[in-house]
Task: structure prediction
Amino acid sequence: MLTTICVAFTIVFMSVEYLYLIYKRRFSRDTFFSWEISGAGEGWLYSGWRARILNYIFDGNKFTSIIILRLLLAVLVMIISENRLLISGCLFMLFFISCLLNLRHTHGRDGADEVILIALLGLASYYVIDKTSILRWVGPGFIVAQLTLSYFISGIYKLKSGTWRNGSAVNKVIATVIYGKPEMQFVLKYKPTALFLCWLIIIWECTFPMLFLFPQPVCFIWLGLGVLFHLSMAVIMGLNTFMFAFLSAYPLFFLLLSKIRFPI
Amino acid sequence: MSEIPGILLGFVLALYFIISIMKYLPFAQKWIDRTDKLTLVPTWTFFAPEPNGTDFYLFFRVFSDDFQSPWRLAEFGKKRAWYSFIWNPNRRHRKAFFDLCQLILTQPGESGEEMLFGVPYLLILNHVNNLCGRELGELVQFTIARKVPSQSDKLSHVFISNTHQLS
Result:
């Protein structure tokens, strides 16, 4: 499936980014990502035999090995096409590694990590279930449901926000160095432009669940707006893996729309 | 028999999805945040309700009895390049610093002593300690400054650490 290859590609890319950060010593013991400090946090998981296991796994070189393993598993998923149980096994292992990364550091994670976690579980479920069973579509359905929920929740929270409703939200973000492009602020100096952009995002996100009710050209236009939305976020905000992660699941929307709404 | 794995997985995924929805219901939110140590339940409130309009900056200085360095800005890599829509690994590093600053500034009810032993504070101190390297001086101190560029160019210092022995 196209989504499987796209998700695997995104993981390859994210793994390469991790390896680059490891090479630049960003994950060494004297940085923000020091496990010696993070691993001393409170909680059941950071004590006793659990802590000993985690300390062993996240020891410098072994952590690098986990990332390399993640990369190799993702490459394997991209090149296997026939053996569904092997693909499923690889995807479940990738899901497990993603859970380990959630433990390794909670700071510095973003929406791309969350989407990939969801996609891995959904796809692993798809491949583990027999081809003849209709239940194998539960996994892809789960991915589509979660992504639809993500847009809807995001839209509702924006609708509740005065900053988004009055059009100043996009300008606030664009002005920052971390997620913005301050040199593009001139575009939003004209208030109606800023207001239009904010409300376009709010309306698109809030109405996203209605995708499956819209007539044919409209539902595909809605998905097209999604592609544009994520591309814009990548260009303006530098959220590259966010774009890869979300768009890797878009083939599922097209597939489900064609099967459910417009079966050939 | 062959349908059992499908039914089980269907049940698990349905439960997962229901919990993902419940995260946004007031009565369940705190319980889910407390229980979800693996961060499996996604947070879908991207840039909402309040979008991030803040940049944080980290300054540090070293000093001893007879020497004090000026406050120096800690850099987090070069400015985002034009190709960052494809390749932007420093994104994670900058986000990590941002998250740690947010945690330090918003931890409810922590006294000064508790803060010193908190993971976010220690991680930033650890980073600053490394930046100092073989600097002259015996003590290090850091401060977090904040700017809201859409409102003003002014930096305001929102947190200052204790002084700590360089190691």
Summary: The mean pLDDT of chain A is 91. Residues 2-23 of chain A form the longest helix (22 residues).
